[in-house]
Write a structure and sequence with these properties.
Elements: H1 24-41, H2 48-60, H3 66-81, H4 90-94, H5 98-113, H6 120-132, H7 139-145
Helix pairs in contact: 1-2, 1-3, 1-5, 1-6, 2-3, 5-6
């Protein structure tokens, strides 16, 4: 139950595929958005370029049903209104296979570069997140220096597969 001063997002979900318990793919997508918004806001605000990249990402997750996408859109609105921290994510991250973690790390670097300016705060946060994802923190720098193809998103890379241990 939310506290009296908590922000909530209400959305309509009449789809027959709507479930009370989201699929593992939803959990991975939700975690990706959580981390991406954290990176986006590290420099003080979520810029238009970052917001557009996150919205395109939602549209590109074709492996999610319409109900899950609506739920994620509402979740993204809430995350942008009340940016999340990066605490207490260990259990969610542990359930991801390494190839999904790598894909998330690459996407987060794209998010940091979306506004064409990567701040020291974004780099520091990316290093922290890469450590949580058990990725090489030095790869942050090479990912940030690679030019990004306009509009590139995760598509339905490893996150779309059922989460199984490596």
């Amino acid at each position: 139950m939310p506290s009296p001063d908590a922000m909530v997002v209400i959305f309509s979900d009449e789809d027959i595929q709507s479930n009370r318990e989201p699929a593992p793919e939803y959990g991975a997508a939700s975690l990706t958005l959580h981390l991406a918004v954290s990176v986006s806001v590290a420099d003080g605000e979520v810029g238009d370029e970052e917001r557009q990249l996150l919205l395109r990402q939602l549209e590109d997750w074709l492996h999610l049903n319409e109900s899950a996408r609506r739920r994620l859109q509402a979740h993204l609105r809430l995350l942008m209104a009340e940016p999340p921290g990066t605490n207490n994510l260990k259990k969610r991250i542990e359930s991801l296979p390494m190839n999904a973690r790598q894909s998330i790390g690459e996407f987060l670097a794209q998010v940091a570069k979306a506004d064409e300016e990567v701040t020291p705060a974004e780099v520091k946060l990316l290093e922290k997140i890469f450590k949580m994802l058990e990725l090489d923190t030095q790869s942050v720098y090479s990912l940030l220096h690679v030019s990004v193809t306009e509009g590139k998103t995760l598509g339905s890379l490893p996150i779309s597969k059922p989460l199984e241990p490596d």
